[in-house]
Amino acid sequence: MLVRYSYDAKGRRLGRALVYTESEHGIPRQSVDAGAIRVVEALVGAGYETYIVGGAVRDLVAGRTPKDFDIVTGAVPSRIRRLFRNSRIIGRRFRIVHVSCGSQLYEVSTFRSRVGEGSVCVPGTLEEDAWRRDFSVNALYYDPLRNVVIDCVGGMVDLKRRRVRPLIPLRSIFVEDPVRMLRALKCSVMCESSIPFSVRRSIRRSVSLLGGCSPSRLTDEFVKILFSGRSAALVRALCGYQLLLYLQPSVHYFMRDVPCFESAFFASLRVLDQAFVSGRVKRVGQALTYVLRDFVGLVFGHADAPDEVYIRVYRACRSFVLPMNPPRVELEYAVRSCLGGRGFAARAACTPSGRLCARENGVRCVFSSP
């Protein structure tokens, strides 16, 4: 194990970080996404300190294959944008850059300073950025070029001890960003870790804050849950804290009020997890099929006229997944898959006028999209 020291402008030592080599962290370089490595190489080649960070490193250390690779660098967003042709800057309070590399999308952010914590984000150093992360196990930095993991906050120890430890004071961690409640439970389930009592109590007191999050953020988080390979366990944990009421309220109420829906829904999620692990689930629409199929079974009626089935089921499913707002093409895919599983071979397509079409037994029905 190596040690990395940081110093201020006057040469005074500010802190230290532990540097884990390959024999200690156990990450084989070939398990790291090639596109993420290319992004890191480009930024390092331009003279900027750059690492893979967050849940991807946590999963790699734990021996799992991450779905997403987030990258952090010393370059500011405008400079990142100039380095990558297929990129765009998003965000207001803290701007990040989405870099497209092949079919993959990588989120590249700038090191954050501890100055102006909470409402203001100022560029900083790696050490400062580590203390702006939500939990210690998400504050590990992986250098794929040297194949080392840098740990400024004791995240490797927490990962081995299976402990979810927040780095931000509890009085503000969930107020600043309620989505961190979902991430705390995800860390707990994915790492099979325990959540301290004080954090559990803070989550229960802050549950209602999740209702103020934007639909786009809730959509992103729910999609990550579906593609985690542990969606059944994660949704079960969300139910335990009443978080599902704000993330997927229709699912919450159906499980409460409709007999047998809860058991069927969790059975579908377990099948989804198996399909994801085996590589059979690649797109959002496929994952949504498992979320919707039990609901579609309740609203689908064989006695309905063929030209009415698709539009009614589609609109019902659109309402069912709120506040989640998946791309329309993905929701259409899921609805068609659910109906196909019940013997209704609906095929939706967009007409030049922007309306949806469905075909069943040679009957063509055209209707305005919701």
Keywords:
3 domains, three-stranded antiparallel β-sheet, Beta Polymerase, domain 2, 370 residues, nucleotidyltransferase, nucleotide-binding, RNA-binding, 17 helices, poly(A) RNA polymerase activity, disordered C terminus, alpha+beta
Mean pLDDT: 87
Strand count, sense and barrel status of the largest sheet are: 9 strands, mixed
What's the helix-strand series? Answer: EEHHEHEHEEEHEEHHHHHHHHHHHHEEE
**Residue share in helix:** 40-55%
Classified by CATH, the class of the largest domain is Alpha Beta
Secondary structure tally: strands = 12
> Under CATH, the topology of the largest domain is which?
Beta Polymerase, domain 2
Quickly give the CATH architecture of the largest domain: 2-Layer Sandwich
Q: Alpha-carbon distance between the termini?
A: 58 Å
Taking pLDDT < 50 over at least 5 consecutive residues as the criterion, the unreliable ranges are: 348-370
Q: What's the helix count?
A: 17
Structural class: alpha+beta
Fourth CATH level, the homologous superfamily of the largest domain: Beta Polymerase, domain 2
Number of domains: 3
The dominant shape is globular
User: How many whole angstroms does the radius of gyration measure?
Assistant: 23 Å
Strand order of the largest sheet: 1-2-9-8-3-4-7-6-5
Task: Name the beta content range.
Answer: 15-25%
